[in-house]
Amino acid sequence: MNYYDLIKKIPFFEKKIKQLKGKNIVDIITDLVNNNEPLIIDIGSNRGQTIDIFSKIYKDAPIYAFEPTPDLYKLLLYKYQLFENIKIFNLALGDKNAIMDFNISSYSPTNSILEPNISTYKNYDYKLPSGKMLSDTFINSSQKIIVDVTTFDNFYQKNIPGKIIDIFKTDTQGFDFEVLAGSINSLPYIKSIICECQFQQFYMGSKPFYNIIEFLYSNGFYISNLLKNNYKERIFECDMVFINKNFKD
């Protein structure tokens, strides 16, 4: 049984998910933020897609961005070298301080500490802009590198202790539960979280999406909305927006 089938067993959950048509990220961000220079955390920055959106809305907002893939880290440093408010860190985040294997392929948005579940990807395969099938990129171009991993709690205490975080975005391809678990002491200082939740096990050893919901709920966060997605029939993954009830207006 996959995670999507489990959704159907949770009373009203599937109906609720379908009712939440989702907003685009610009509307989400403007709804979440009530100041002109919000403090933003971007975990899993890839090529800076989300940073670009944040910067367009809030020109001077301090942004702390994390990207463990060496080539992407260098790209981000070059791309934002003139932006003093954007700080880039070549780190992976998780639930412990460690040195770990990191899986990369020619399609960088799927890079993850966890190994891709090829059989699941084959069931929901699709063609990339390059013309290749996604599952083929894992089979033909996957490799492992070593990366430094730290907890967000450790980073927070060393760099921005006591600061209120307006937006905490995490998209780490199946490793987001560990990222959040490593942020547990910082959660009281976080107003909102944008987190990828996967309804299929696309990565080996990834925690079910409902573990993320339960964890955040037990720490005072509730689901506010979803980011708009392009799925027409089945939702395989989505970005959920969580609000800290202690900061609710």
List the keywords.
single chain, three-stranded mixed sheet, seven-stranded mixed sheet, alpha/beta, about 250 residues
What does this protein look like?
The chain is about 30% helix and about 20% strand. It is of the alpha/beta class and about 250 residues long. It has a single domain (about 20-245), classed as Rossmann fold. The chain has a 7-stranded mixed beta sheet with strand order 3-2-1-7-8-10-9, sandwiched between helices. The radius of gyration is 18 Å and the shape is globular. The relative contact order is 0.17.
Short description, anyone?
The protein has 249 residues and is an alpha/beta fold. Helices cover 31% and strands 22% of the residues. The protein has one domain (21-247): Rossmann fold (3-Layer(aba) Sandwich), CATH 3.40.50.
Beta fraction: 15-25%
Strand order of the largest sheet: 3-2-1-7-8-10-9
Report the uncertain regions.
Answer: 7-12
Task: Tell me how many strands there are.
Answer: 10
Classify the helix fraction into a percent range: 25-40%
**Which architecture name does CATH use?**
3-Layer(aba) Sandwich
CATH topology: Rossmann fold
Backbone shape: globular
State Rg. Answer: 18 Å
- The first-level CATH class name: Alpha Beta
Q: Helix/strand/pairing class, anyone?
A: alpha/beta
Q: Helix tally?
A: 10
